[in-house]
Amino acid sequence: MTIMIIGLLIFLGSHSIRIFAENWRQQKVAQLGLPTWKLAYSAVSVVGLAIAIYGFGQMRLEPIYIWFPPMGLRHAVALLMLPAFILLVAAYIPRNAIKAKLGHPMLLAVKVWALSHLLVNGRFGDIIFFAAFLVWGILAFKAAKKRDRANPPAVTATSIPATIATVVIGVVAYALFAFHLHSLLIGVSVFG
Predict the structure, then answer these.
(1) Same domain, residue pair 104 and 182
(2) Calpha distance 60→39 (Å, rounded)
(3) CA 18 – CA 44 distance, rounded (Å)
(4) pLDDT tens for residues 6-19?
């Protein structure tokens, strides 16, 4: 579990710079240039995520159970993950109404994903993993909204086709992940 925690500290720590050290970040961007900053930030993030995922897999080999969630909660997770995928897609499709209304759909997707997975995972390591992402998501969303209030983003016109595409792609991505990729990549069948 130590490896997972180290990975989480690296990954979520790098992603917390805008929460706790925005001025330092701005200084580094000015000093290094945005492309160099993004490259360094991405490298640290990828390394941290890889370590966290590896540690998560290792933690599952010797689980410590805190509680045993009722099987019925799996249905709640399956239901909650549908809007999480749509929110995730909304972060990337320009001019969709979901992003225009919510502002930071990626952070909302992380919060829904983490909370829903806390419902069905009773192992100590799982609780640490998903709770860390949930706490980070809450803090990052709060910080992003504070930045928006200080410097409001430009209002862009929304597009009905972009919004429909966001929902359709989100539903398709959800179906692919729920019915195929989750069991292949995570080793747990969503509906089995």
Answers:
(1) yes
(2) 32
(3) 15
(4) 999 999 999 999 99
